[in-house]
Amino acid sequence: MTFGKDFMLGAATAAHQVEGNNRNSDYWVMENMEYSQFVEPSLDAVDHYHHFEEDIRMLARAGLNTYRFSVEWARIEPQMGCFDEGEIQHYREVIRCCKEYGVEPVVTLMHFTSPIWLIKMGGWDNEEVVALFARYAKYVTEQLGDEIHYICTINEANMRLQIGALMERFKKQMMARMAAGAAGTNGNAAKDDHKDSVEGQVQVGVNLSDPMERMKLAAMENVKLFGDPQPHTFVSATDQKGDEIVMKAHKAAREAIKNVNPDLKVGITLSLHDCQYTDGGKEQADKEWEEEFGHYRAFLQEDDFFGLQNYTRSVYGPEGILPVPEGAPLTLMDYEVYPEALEHVIRRVHEEMPGVPIMVTENGIATSDDAQRIAFIDRALEGVQRCLEDGIPVIGYCYWSLLDNFEWQKGYSLTFGLCAVNRATQERIPKKSLNYLGSKILH
Fold it and tell me: Cys bridge to 78: 24, 159, 162, 171, which one at CB 3.0-4.6 A?
């Protein structure tokens, strides 16, 4: 199984998760709160900010030809309306390094983290973000647009709705446990299982293990830092209005990019599950798919490609999402290990948006067993190859992630990377999976 030279085979990272010291971002503030929900702060991360050439060279020497990464809004515009020329030059150097090593750079403008000033003014639930994000997109394109071919505006634009659904499920489970406690039943054994199963239903590292009292103290601290007990960051729950704001921001950014450089290929990425169902569960599964993907189609009609991100499946019964099948292997993120999901999702997206090029912008597994990672990659790529053989326009596959990194509220314990990092020394330790992935393309 090998892919042709024109196929974009690579790996992905996100700025905040790998660069380190992203001090002007909302996440940096939240990580360093006294009552933070983060299990640990990002600090130097894996210092990709200073090691990017080493990392890109490593990727290229393994045989990969594509690197998807994000530029950090909070670095580029640390104060509202004030752009940092030194930081845009840094990302220019990252892009030129990619080209020096024969690697196609795929740039994401917003990968979850935002400038502190944006969150203080209402963040992603404030309509003003639409124009502000478009202005940022325009600036980046003016500065870097001649150096690249592909831009993803927003990473996992549907994540805010997914977090909202997750929190609703979590609240229901909390209420059920409280009711069980009032009735004198012992729900302790179920407590951890419920927490883990809920956290495993969303494709981002969230931590729901904090006691309620600590969450209340965090809300009070948020008021002091952001002026709001529940700041409207990109990875916070929202409703339909907040979801529409995100898509308006995508459309405005796409227009701004095209006005500067109409030749740039612009897309967005969505977090998608393979929505399956058992007897009586089709209506629930279809409802979930419509929320995750279907209702976005109208906003994507003018996009040049679609960024597809998938890690696992969700199975629905008549009452909603079902637990992972008993005995099924789980990743460190509490997802079911199910690489076949990728092929299923690619086919479904293609059916609903025929002719639109699909780039797999993320797919991977959090595991400490690299042999398991290789097996996952193998089965996922077999599915991609079958899609190509059937004429589906899949233009690339980026494994998540190039490096073991900072998995948001979960910290550094969840290892997705093709390369380990000794964070005490920042030494890179490539895994066998890196060269294995690189061997899957003709050179």
Answer: 24
Instruction: Provide the domain limits for residue 420.
Output: 8-438
What residues contact 243, with CB distance under 8 A and at least 6 apart?
158, 160, 161
pLDDT at 189: 42
The DSSP output letter for 323 is: P
Judge residue 137's burial from the number of C-beta atoms within 10 Å of its C-beta, 0-12 exposed, 13-18 middle, 19 or more buried: buried
Domain presence at residue 334? yes
DSSP three-state, residue 168? helix
pLDDT digits (tens, 9 = 90+) for 138-183: 999 999 999 999 999 999 999 999 887 776 666 666 666 666 666 6
Cα separation, 139 vs 247, in Å, equals 20
Query: What is the domain count for the chain?
Result: 1
Question: How would DSSP label each residue in 145-159?
Answer: GGG-SEEEEETTTTH
Q: In the predicted model, is pLDDT for residue 188 greater than 80?
A: no
Cis peptide before 433 (omega within 30 of 0): no
- 228 or 214: which carries more pLDDT confidence? 228
What is the pTM assigned to this prediction?
Answer: 0.93
Alpha-carbon distance of 384 to 394, in angstroms, equals 8
Domain-located, residue 443: no
Assess if residue 118 is contained within a domain: yes
Residue 287 is part of a domain; what is its CATH number?
3.20.20.80
What average pLDDT does the segment 233-237 reach? 93
* One-letter amino acid for residue 39 of the chain: V
Q: In angstroms, rounded to a whole number, what is the distance separating the alpha carbons of residues 441 and 269?
A: 24
Q: Helix (H) and strand (E) counts for the chain?
A: 15, 14
pLDDT of residue 194: 40
Do the beta carbons of residue 384 and residue 346 sit within 8 Å? yes
